[in-house]
TrEMBL record, chain A:
It is found in: Cell membrane. Pfam families: ABC_tran (PF00005), OB_MalK (PF17912). CDD domains: ABC_MalK_N (cd03301). GO terms for biological process: carbohydrate transport. One of its GO terms (cellular component) is ATP-binding cassette (ABC) transporter complex, substrate-binding subunit-containing. It is a peripheral membrane protein. This is ABC transporter ATP-binding protein. GO terms for molecular function: ABC-type transporter activity; ATP binding; ATP hydrolysis activity. Keywords: ATP-binding, Cell membrane, Membrane, Nucleotide-binding, Translocase, Transport. Coiled coil: none annotated.
Automatic annotation (TrEMBL), chain B:
Its main location: membrane. This is Carbohydrate ABC transporter permease. It comes from Thermococcus paralvinellae. Belongs to the binding-protein-dependent transport system permease family. MalFG subfamily. GO terms for biological process: maltodextrin transmembrane transport.
Amino acid sequence: MVKIILKEITKKFGDFTALNNINLKIDDREFMALLGPSGSGKSTLLYTIAGIYRPTSGRIYFDDRDVTEVPPKDRNVGLVFQNWALYPHMKVFENIAFPLELRKVPRQEIEKKVREVAKMLHIENLLDRYPWQLSGGQQQRVAIARALVKEPDVLLLDEPLSNLDALLRLEVRAELKRLQKELGITAVYVTHDQAEALAMADRIAVIKEGKILQVGTPDEVYYRPKYRFVGGFLGNPPMNFVEAEVENGHLKVYESKIPVPAQYRELIEKLGIKEVLLGFRPHDAEVIKGIGEGLIGEVYSFEPLGREQIVTASIGGTFVKVFAPEGEHFTFGEKVTVKIREDRIVLFDKKTERALEFLEE
Amino acid sequence: MKDVETRPRRYEWIVILAILLASLPLILGFSLLMLSSFSREMVTNLDLSSFHFTLENWINVFQGKLATTGGIRTNILKITFNTLVVALGVSGVVTFISALAGYSLSRIDFRGRKHMMVLLLILHAFPGVALIVGVYLLYRLTFPQNPDVIRLYSFFYVILARAALEIPMSVWLMKGFFDTIPWEFEWSGIIDGASRIKVWWKIMLPLIKPGILAVALFAFLAGWQDIIYVRTFLIDQTLATFIEANIEAEYSHMPLIAAAGTLYLLPTIIFFLTAQQILLQGYSGGIKG
């Protein structure tokens, strides 16, 4: 139960900079997701917190204690690996007991603690099996049990669900979130799956190329992305972007014109920006047949998903995806108008791809 | 992989035939040797009429007779024991050192690591015979004065010298095995509170068991079969040097030598039959996850 403070962490592997001046504060009992595409440095950051990697520069604090030079075993962290790294030559019991044995905990206490944690994760009947005799989901639980048995201050998870099949992933996701809150443990969770991050985390840190682009609650990063990248990385389908020119109080997109959203009027005036990217989420717009008020384009494709359908419209060659209710029938090439909820529009500077409201930060 | 058809079945017999033809001289030689060890006379030139079954040779071997008519007595059991000591010694030293060295080369990024790996390859390419003069010189220089320990020292020295020849390749093999183990296993151990050496012993070694077995077996056979080093340094005889020394002696009864020769071959045959799967795994460098 500690808060973690990362101060100006930089990690280089030879000439390659994996982490570039990372500043992050993770609160006590918080569930923080590190979200980013593969190769973004999110796992490196996790391993730096664990102590496996030593940062090239910068400091790491657990509460007020500077742990930058502290070896991993003295940081009291539990780590669940992507491939779980269960020791194949040890039975489940021995796997879970291993961290305690290394701490020279008395035999009886080991027995008690292993059974406790096994019960919590519903694997008490698997204790005398070998890892290879278990299903993926069961191995996953054993890995979590092994990380939790030593009652760590921090639980670190490196894409722990990515080796599970889709349905199981949803189940474990909910359970893991509940477990973290029940134990009141500080958790850092690395994932490339935006849905996982949104569903589980208290806050999300979006990482790209070794830099943190944005830290915020799921709502914040979802609805108020600081960068085009963040908007385009979160959501399924992700945020739509169309290029627009500012022309006396209007945004000109290809051949259509819509008024500048109310919340941006002052800002645009102040910044004097001419070229912007207009971003909106697929569920924050509707597709109206025919030509009307909004972005005019034509239907490129449509994909029914049961309850709703995704309509891909081409607006002057730029594709946008919009959710439409079921039962509405579209034809390829049909003229449509995409009408966007004004208050949900996010504008980005076209050059820097930063959101206008964060441009001056 | 067995179930994957890589080439049409009908060509398979050609391959089998080719393998049989290639190994025919060996199979023939070994069969004749074994046959002779159970015969009163040598079975040579494929002349089976000279085969007269007897267990005499084997009985004599274990009673330690070299010639059937009394004559010189050599304790073959003792020689077998010597051979075992040398072979196990070489195997032990090689396995221990290469398991440690292979781990370091695979996992620890120390200064000069790359050079060391190249050096190991060069050392491996160096023929042992070429080194023997220098190794002998060292032997003379370190030879103990105390006559009681001379025999022991010669064992000690031959084991070390022979092991040194095996180590470069074994270290490479071991490094290959350690390379196949994902880092996560090691990190997991380290986070759980294990030292590097404990990780090596408790996690890594069990994971590369097939590799250890392969290296140990090859080193064992190297020690078991060696003639030149054993003959140069060891005061006592091993099976290899014993057979080599007596094969052309006039007083020796050849079928008896054949029995000794079969005894000498035994571990090789047993190992390759029983450990086939493990050795194949060893060659492909894989482990089951």
